[in-house]
């Protein structure tokens, strides 16, 4: 098997359909990379998402998919353990205590080896390989050892922590050397690239020169490539009849003309959901907001529910929602509509179109696509975005109402300012944010990374 372009990610770009077949997974990453993979003789290496699934490799939409099976132990140790209970919290400022276990690390190492072996098998001589995210940080070096002919890129979707925090990691040297196996290491923000280069200097005694560092006879480049969304796709969806029907239904069900605050997140402790609800509760308690004038819809998509910290977060959030609804609600009228569910893309779009204020308040977030999706959805130039300054998106969207999510008073100030802003101020802000996004969509992100990496030749972008 000889593929000239190989994407390597924890998950394959498909989900099992009800009829047992496969459908393309939603999301900008897949919609950006799949066409590139299809047009350049591409393959994708990743897990199907089903524990113990031994599906053989198959073609889907012109891309060769090479599953890497994960056993129940792999899912416990590599995925929920090392990836999501050690690396994830540590790379997000340790907002939850990272847990360190030796058998998790061993499993992380073993699964990364399997990903590297599978990739080495499918990549053609001199192929370009693009590896994604924190679950696979050892793969670049493992792959280079097996296949020095390859051009290897790595992109980290989450923040890269400051040196002092990274130094706490058992196996820190292996992880760093793992990444240094790539020719190009991409991050969401320049600060993350700087952290990485400083770490390389500290741990290995290398001497970075600008954004590059010489390592084992090669040059490794570290640079920011802020990810984005499929802006044209999002704009097309706003006129989809199913979306418009859903928006009407929402308005009817909510009744009256209450203004809508909206939160959309995976239920994750990095997303600042508790702080957002606390701020909203205080605004109600102080009478700054009245439950018959505003409503908060919080869509909290179930995520990593076997990890203890996520179960505890769910309990805390649900207790607080119950308290606020108990204290400030009435029969037939609750101040918080809390949905612990996953909704269809059409329903999500209808929520974006209905929200007067989108409240995105992570304590730390590599980028945050929800903020960008909201802006892309608002072709009407309506609505306001309250955005945590600790998201990657904040650097690109200074016209949002920026807040410090650790400061409840600042959260309250941001929400109130967004609710009180004049329509013309909001329109100006939204227009500027939309202009930025249209020029920086996910296709441009993928192309700029692959251009910097060199290797595959890309078709020119399709006119929109
Ligand atoms: C990681 C980084 C970085 C959520 N609920 C539903 C649903 N979603 C979709 C959103 C959005 C995506 O999930 C979440 O993306 P985020 O960027 O907000 O956050 P993470 O999942 O933490 O993503 C992050 C990203 O990678 C990309 O590099 O931005 O910083 O942490 O697209 O729309 N979609 C549907 N139903 C839901 O209920 N259909």
TrEMBL record:
Q: Where is the signal peptide?
A: none
Q: Name one Pfam family in it.
A: Glyco_transf_20
Question: What superkingdom heads the lineage?
Answer: Bacteria
Q: Molecular function (GO) terms listed? A: alpha,alpha-trehalose-phosphate synthase (UDP-forming) activity
- Which one GO biological process term can you cite for this protein? trehalose biosynthetic process
> What is the similarity comment for this entry?
Belongs to the glycosyltransferase 20 family.
- Please give the name of this protein: Trehalose-6-phosphate synthase
**The species this protein was found in:** Dactylosporangium sucinum
């Amino acid at each position: 098997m000889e593929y000239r372009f190989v994407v390597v990610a924890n998950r394959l770009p498909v989900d099992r359909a009800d009829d047992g077949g496969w459908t393309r997974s939603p999301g900008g990453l897949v919609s950006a990379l799949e066409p590139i993979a299809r047009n350049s003789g591409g393959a994708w290496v990743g897990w199907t998402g089903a524990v113990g699934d031994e599906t053989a490799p198959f073609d889907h939409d012109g891309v060769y998919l090479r599953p890497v099976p994960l056993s129940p132990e792999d899912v416990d140790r590599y995925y929920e353990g090392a990836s999501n209970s050690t690396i994830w919290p540590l790379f997000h400022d340790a907002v939850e205590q990272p847990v360190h276990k030796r058998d998790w690390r061993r499993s992380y190492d073993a699964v990364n080896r399997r990903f590297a072996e599978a990739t080495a098998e499918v990549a053609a001589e001199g192929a370009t390989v693009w590896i994604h995210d924190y679950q696979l940080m050892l793969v670049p070096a493992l792959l280079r050892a097996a296949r020095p002919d390859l051009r290897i890129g790595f992109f980290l979707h989450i923040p890269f922590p400051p040196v002092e925090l990274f130094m706490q990691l058992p196996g820190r040297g292996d992880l760093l050397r793992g990444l240094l196996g790539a020719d190009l290491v991409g991050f969401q923000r320049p600060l993350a690239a700087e952290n990485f280069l400083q770490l390389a200097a500290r741990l290995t005694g290398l001497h970075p020169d600008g954004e590059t560092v010489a390592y084992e006879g090669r040059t490794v480049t570290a640079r920011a490539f802020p990810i984005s969304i499929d802006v044209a796709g999002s704009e097309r969806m706003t006129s989809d009849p199913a979306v418009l029907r859903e928006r009407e239904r929402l308005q009817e069900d909510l009744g009256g003309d209450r203004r809508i605050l909206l939160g959309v997140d995976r239920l994750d402790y990095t997303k600042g959901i508790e702080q957002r609800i606390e701020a909203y509760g205080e605004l109600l308690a102080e009478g700054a907001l009245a439950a018959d004038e505003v409503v908060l819809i919080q869509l909290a998509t179930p995520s990593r529910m076997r990890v203890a910290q996520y179960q505890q977060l769910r309990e805390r959030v649900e207790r607080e929602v119950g308290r606020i609804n108990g204290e400030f609600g009435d029969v037939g009228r609750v101040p918080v509509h809390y949905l612990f569910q996953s909704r269809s893309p059409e329903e999500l779009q209808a929520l974006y179109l209905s929200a007067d204020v989108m409240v995105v308040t992570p304590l730390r977030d590599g980028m945050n696509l929800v903020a960008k999706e909201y802006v892309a959805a608002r072709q009407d130039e309506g609505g306001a975005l309250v955005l945590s300054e600790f998201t990657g998106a904040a650097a690109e969207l200074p016209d949002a109402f920026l807040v410090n999510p650790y400061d409840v008073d600042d959260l309250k100030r941001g929400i109130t300012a967004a609710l009180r802003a004049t329509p013309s101020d909001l329109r100006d802000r939204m227009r500027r944010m939309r202009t930025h996004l249209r020029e920086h969509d996910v296709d441009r992100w993928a192309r700029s990374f692959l251009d910097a990496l060199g290797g595959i030749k890309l078709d020119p972008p399709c006119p929109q």
